[in-house]
Structure formats: C-alpha cells, structure tokens
Specification:
four-stranded antiparallel beta sheet, GTP Cyclohydrolase I, domain 2, 38% strand, alpha+beta, 131 residues
C-alpha cells in the first residue's frame, strides 16, 4: 500500500493539534532553555473498513497515542523531532489493524516570523516493518 487512498475503503482516526511542552532540539538555546518548546502534534491512523456499517467495526483506540503525546512532557530532553515521530509511529502500529499513519510535529513560537517549524511523515506498516 503506497497511500491511504490506495487502501480502498478505510477509516482515518485523528488526533489534531495536541499542544504539549517538550524539551527538544539540538541548538544550545533549545538544549539548555529556561522553558521547553511548545509542540503541536497531529496524528492520523489509517485502517481498512471490513464491515458494511462503521458501528459494527472494532474501534481503533487513540488513547495510547494520546498518552504517548502527553508523556513527552516528562520524557527528558529529546534531540530530534524525528525521534518523537518514530515513537508515535511505533505506538500507532501497536494496533495490528493500523496499516498506515501520518504524524505532524511542529515547534511553535520557534521563530518570530513563522507559526511553526517541523515535519510531516506518512508511514505504512509494510515499510515500517521492512526497515
């Protein structure tokens, strides 16, 4: 599967713009900052729909993803946003029905002229497991 649209019928379970305070970054002013960076994190989990009615399908529980996001606030210093993305991806794929995920992580307020700086990553289970 190369993209969620290639899956056919699917559901996308979303957590949008969770804002957390995380000690993250390589720059000395981030590593030894008086306060952590504010991050905005969004996650989508994609799974096939195998039933006619959504109400008959097993739910995709987003609470483990939410708990992981909240846990970042007490995780200590993290050098790279990519490390955060990898951790969230692993949590998404802990549910065997999730075939793909999308993770967006933004440092807010990092530059005065930019609302946020970060990355967007789309991963498929097939590529994740093959790597």
């Amino acid at each position: 599967m190369s993209s969620p649209s290639a899956m056919g019928d699917h559901i996308a379970v979303s957590l949008d713009e969770a804002v957390v305070n995380v000690r993250v970054g390589l720059h000395p002013w981030e590593r030894f900052a008086e306060k952590p960076n504010r991050l905005a994190i969004s996650v989508k989990l994609f799974a096939r729909i195998a039933t006619r009615l959504l109400a008959d399908a097993p739910i995709i529980d987003y609470d483990p993803v939410r708990a992981h996001i909240r846990g970042l606030e007490t995780a200590g210093h993290i050098d790279l946003l990519e490390t955060i993305v990898d951790g969230l991806t692993a949590v998404c794929f802990a549910d065997p029905r999730v075939e793909a995920c999308f993770v967006r992580v933004r440092k807010l307020d990092i530059f005065p002229e930019i609302a946020g700086a970060g990355l967007d990553v789309h991963r498929t289970r097939a590529q994740w497991e093959a790597a």
